[in-house]
Sequence to fold (396 residues):
Amino acid sequence: MSLLVTADALIDGSGAAPLRPGAVLLQGDRIVAVGAHVAPPPNAERLDLAGATILPGLIDCHVHLSDEGLPDASARDRDPPALRVLRMAEHARRTLAAGFTTVRDVGGRDHLEFGLRRAAAEQVIQTPRLVLAGKIVSMTTPGASSWPGMYRQADGPWDVVKAVREQVAAGADVIKVMATGAVLAPAHERPGVAQFTTDELRAAVDAAHALGRRVAAHAHGIDGIRRAVEAGVDTIEHGTHLHEAPAVARAMATRGIFLVPTLKALANIADAPAPGIPDEIVAKARERRTDRDLTFRLALAEGVAIAMGTDAATPFNRHGENAQELAIMVDLGMSALSAIAAATCIAGRAIGRDDVGLLAPGKLADIAIWDGDPLADIRLLQRPPRVVFLGGMRVV
Fold:
């Protein structure tokens, strides 16, 4: 059965100017035509949405469905796996209901996320499309030990290779490595300090790429970012101190390495809306507020491909509130049209999915439709969408 959807405007995700009006024709799970006006085949159904804008389903390149945005994540460490899985399903539901039809989960707990994906495939639950990393590959460190079930600690190139292969064997679509310390780690672990050596990072990249998997590198400090870029990772997560070395940003642009800046994660810790975050973590975030903004603006200026990611599940960074990230990107100088591209077409490229993030013939029919014009006010995307399709099926 074919379905023609029409609205006042259509933003295809490529960064091109919107179509006014806009129409998209769906058949099965695919898009078959897009235009200002599309002639439907005989007997096609219609959905006419006056006052609305059609977008590709949004993509969040950096989430943690296994956690929930509490001020202190350790409060859930003793929860039984069954309870954590049920919470994961609810987090996924909220994310889909917010218009995000694909997410890349870059660190779960005890591989429970693979069961979540299977449940979605068997239509037990509805979730966004899930691109999963399994356990984060890290050197031995107190920071990794403080998150039970989230990390596979490895030291030396061969142990790193084994850790990568273990994640792929478990079902990982992407590999995440720790190139620096973290904000959400014990006070003596500094986000700016490099962790894996270049040889260890290169071993991870070579092992992952040999198995057809992309590599995401958690990296705040410039030394760790530089090592990750030299090793050939595919995405830099956070990238907080990239502004300290514009040449590294230029190398990222030249090599096609994406930046996933996770702006709202740092903001929600540094300027927490309520108490409860450990003081040492708040201090680390506040030290880096200016760095975050300088890096984002440098990446824009140097032509680094920026893909949207929230780090959803860090303190007060709740699943389903993902679109807040887009407003921060615009506040820091990105156009609304480019911010939408960062959460659609560019995000799809960053996660290695060329079948999502774009309204074009042959792409998956993942579509989100909001009332109003998000180019006039990007914060409209923080409201619940009017309609969401996932693979041609209406889910909202």
Remarks:
- The mean pLDDT is 96.
- The two ends are 19 Å apart (CA to CA).
